Amino acid sequence: MVLGFALSLLGCVLLSLSMKRHYGQVTKDGRLSKRVSIVLRVLAYLCLFACGVVCIQRCGVGIGLVWWWGLLTLTALLQTLLLAYWPQWLRALKEIVY
Amino acid sequence: MNGTFRQSMNWLHTWSGLLVGSLLYFMFITGSLGYFDTEIDRWMQPEVVLAEGAETSSMVLLAEQYVAQQLVDVESWRVALPVGREPLLTVSWRDTQGVSGETILNPHTGLPVAVRKTGGGQLLYMMHWQLHYLPNQVARWLTSIAAMFMLIALITGIVVHKKIFKDFFTFRPNKKQRSWLDVHNIFSVLPLPFHLMITYSGLLFLAGSTMMPAIITGSYGTDWQSYFDERSTRFAIVEPAGKSAAPLPLVTVINDVEQRWGIENVGRVIVRNSGDINTRVSFSRFLSDDLKARETLTYDGISGELLHDSTAKQPSLPTQTSTVLLALHEGLFASWPLRWLYFLSGILGAGMIATGLILWAVKRRAKAERLGKAHRGLVFVEGLNAGTIIGLPIAIAVYFWANRLLAINVADREEKEVAALFIAWAITLIYPMFRPVKRAWRELLWLAAAAYGLLPIVNAFTTEHHLANSLAQGDWVMAGFDLTALAFGAIALRAAFYLRAKESRGQLKSIEKSSIEALVTAPTEVTAQ
Predict the structure, then answer these.
(1) A80:B170 CB<8 A
(2) What are the strands of the beta sheet with B100-105, ordered from one edge?
């Protein structure tokens, strides 16, 4: 489930970065090209979907779905807090990636 | 209610939310605590001896021995075994005169354990639809109406919210009304699957016996008892024949259960019509690997013959649907991390209702400031909000305090604990009506911080399960309770400090404003002279 959590959080980070408002919050220079946005979004949905696959594989369909939605709620909440209060952490993450 | 579709939905959302907001908040808070009902039970009965290392079958036999040696004229009795989260070995019974009783046994010796009387977490959990002091049917009506309004508020809320995806991660702090709306949206949208599931399933359980009786009556007529029997685990149960017979020792039946299921998952053993030729013995287990109902084996208690196996036949589709919904609502299958996610979602639900109520008041307060006078209804709702949103958590802390501070042998102990809860809540509801509302919020937050922050200290003084001890022993249920109380206390303290800082900033601003005005006006006065 740690893997599920990581995938879901990564998905939320990428999804928020594919939005103009949050991309600007994190990068400061704030220009988000259409192409980058689409790439980020596709990657984000892949991560979120993969999280669901992991949950269902571990716990079966019924409980797996409960886990999936629970994790999505938790990580989306975390990402919202990160964006509002600690955007510099996400900036640091970006520097590691590039 | 004129205007566009969205405007009318907005109207419906606002007023359906306000009407039952406080009741819904109560249901969400006590219901969320229900996800930790047995853990709270354990904290509230610190005398309990843990069952580690005790064999299931030997515990059943100890219970059987207790019933045979200590009780007379027992009509039916039940053993609840410590499996999964359940830590206790409990025997309860009813005798032929209809008098019932219950005792907790030491799982190793079979001797009764003296524990304090308490409603525990079970009572907190059951409050979320029984509302405690009200007659059962009245409470069901009230809660089902509230659930109906919750469902309306959720659906109209989705319609009203124009930018669900665009605002998904959006929170803009320190922007007054805008910030409240952001938080309300976050608390509503992120756990939306949970909110819809919990409201819809809750409504279904309640509405069957209140708003939509035709559903049951359609199939069962006036014989509702047989409906409830079928919904519970009463299979192959008959009336006593009135002829006594020597019951088979349970050990023979246990051997058969052992071969079919293995005994270690069995959580309940129920003996009905004890000593009659129609004695029935049932064993139930609950497996947490899927969204399933309890499974039950029912035996003839005289011949030992297996009469009914609830796993033998696939249940009907409506039964399966209702089983899945009930399983999702109660989350009995959830392991502890998933249980925390459930708890978080429930608390977010309470937060959604709280921020909705606050938003109602904040909007109207802004307008009242412009007009220079506040409507009496606004002042009332502002007071009610503080007394509900902070008052209820304080009252629940008082319930825990009462559990530790009331004398162990005081009469009606469990009722006095509950009385402490509701008296505390009544006081916190009345208090903000007589205070400037901003100050009432802050003072109630200080009180909440003290009520939760000091709870582990009260625990340390009144039991031997203080935090250092329970951490050292790896007793995570006890330690988890204390740590959670500390966390709640810290959150309340943080909020109180925040409000104080905000207020002094506000005062500073108005001082600055007036001194600037003085500076601006002073020279003109001088020149005028």
Answers:
(1) yes
(2) B100-105, B89-95, B74-80, B266-272, B280-285, B295-300, B306-309
**Rounded alpha-carbon distances, angstroms, from residue B324 to B123, B143, B317, B329:** 24, 21, 11, 9
| CA atoms of B117 and B403, how far apart (whole Å) | 9
**Confidence band (pLDDT; 50, 70, 90) for B304?**
confident
Least Cα separation, residue B442 to chain A (angstroms): 23
One-character DSSP codes across B8-59: HHHHHHHHHHHHHHHHHHHHHHHHHHGGGHHHHHHHH-TTPPP-TT--HHHH
Cβ–Cβ gap A73/B289 under 8 Å: no
A63 touches chain B (CB under 8 A): yes
Task: Judge whether B352 and B188 are in contact, CB under 8 Å.
Answer: yes
Kindly indicate the confidence band of residue B229, based on its pLDDT and cuts at 50, 70 and 90. Answer: low
The answer to whether residues B425 and B388 touch, using CB atoms and an 8 Å cutoff, is no
Closest CA to B104 of B119, B87, B117, B89: B89
From B169, B190, B328, residue closest to A66, measured CB to CB = B328
- Rounded to 10 degrees, the C-alpha dihedral B325/B326/B332/B338 comes to 30
Q: pLDDT tens for residues B233-251?
A: 567 677 888 888 888 888 8
Q: Which of B32, B166, B169 to mutate to test the interface with A (most CBs of A within 10 A)?
A: B169
Q: What average pLDDT does this structure show over B374-396?
A: 94
Give the pLDDT confidence of B454-499 residue by residue, as tens digits: 999 999 999 988 898 889 888 899 999 999 999 999 999 999 999 9
Smallest CA–CA distance, residue A98 to chain B, in Å, is 24
What is the ipTM for the molecules in this complex?
Answer: 0.92
Is the distance from CB of B460 to CB of B466 less than 8 angstroms? Answer: yes
Chain B residue closest in CA terms to A16? B169
Q: Which residue of A has its CA nearest to B336?
A: A67
Q: A74 CB near a chain B CB, below 8 Å?
A: yes
Question: Do the Cβ atoms of B338 and A76 come within 8 Å?
Answer: no
Residue B218 DSSP symbol: H
pLDDT at B54: 81
Q: Pick from B24, B126, B123: which is nearest to B349 by CA?
A: B24
- Torsion sign over Cα B158, B159, B162, B166: positive
Give the 3-state secondary structure of residue B162: coil
| CA terminus-to-terminus distance, chain A | 28
